[in-house]
Specification:
alpha+beta; 3-stranded mixed sheet
Length: 91
């Protein structure tokens, strides 16, 4: 039986904070020396998820910046990753 992302994350740390309805946007858990693990979301997937709910791109970005990125809920506040693709080497 396949485990849900929430079950897998609970094994890492049962106190991780998650955004309801955005499990498909989770890309992992961020950790740093001396820091507390936090859930990492893919920024582009979050915006696409909001657009799939009927928002325009601009509305989705504004909503995300104010309600998700701008919502500090303590030291376990999730982070949002902007993926950078490796450019192909010239030559």
């Amino acid at each position: 039986m396949r485990r849900t992302i929430r079950e897998l994350l609970s094994d890492i740390d049962p106190d991780l904070l998650l955004m309801d309805g955005f499990d498909d946007c989770i890309i992992g858990v961020c950790e740093s020396f001396g820091g507390i693990p936090v859930v990492a979301y893919d920024y582009d997937k979050v915006i696409a998820h909001l657009e799939s709910q009927g928002m325009t791109y601009e509305e989705a970005v504004e909503y995300h910046e104010f309600n998700q990125l701008g919502a500090y809920v303590g030291e376990r506040t999730p982070v949002f990753i902007h993926r950078i693709e490796n450019p192909k080497s010239a030559g």
